[in-house]
Amino acid sequence: MQERSEGTWLEAIALFETVRKGHQAASAQLLSTATEPDIVMLHLLRMLGVYLRGEDKDKLERFVAAARRAGPPPLPGPGARGPLPD
User: Fold this and answer.
1) Comparing C-alpha atoms, which of 14, 22, 64 is closest to residue 41?
2) Are 15 and 83 in contact (CB under 8 A)?
3) 6: number of CA atoms within 13 Å, CB side?
């Protein structure tokens, strides 16, 4: 069981890295091909929670307010994969 848990944790780290680099299409592909996507997503959310706790509260509040005003960015067109991760 530990080996499987380690694998999903490493997949979550890879997912975090591709999102950080701005490769959303590659990130979506990684998640869709993950061994256990729900566990990988849970690990990713845990990582984000730890990361965000270290950020300035005012900065995060401004970011959330801006995201609410702006709405979601447009999705890539059909067949668009975006740049692959480094």
Assistant:
1) 14
2) no
3) 3
Tell me if 85 sits within 8 A of 24, measured CB to CB: no
Please state, in angstroms and rounded to a whole number, the distance separating the CA atoms of residues 84 and 22. 10
Q: What is the pTM of this model?
A: 0.74
Q: What is the pLDDT of residues 3-25, one digit of tens each?
A: 568 999 999 999 999 999 989 88
Length of the chain: 86
For the chain, what is the largest distance between any 2 Cα atoms, rounded to a whole number of angstroms? 44
pLDDT (tens digit, 9 = 90+) per residue, 39-82? 999 999 999 999 999 999 999 999 999 999 998 888 766 655 55
User: Are 15 and 40 a contacting pair, CB within 8 Å?
Assistant: yes
Concatenate the DSSP letters of all residues of 8-56 into one string. Answer: HHHHHHHHHHHHHTT-HHHHHHHHHT-SSHHHHHHHHHHHHHHHHHTS-
3-state secondary structure of 60: helix
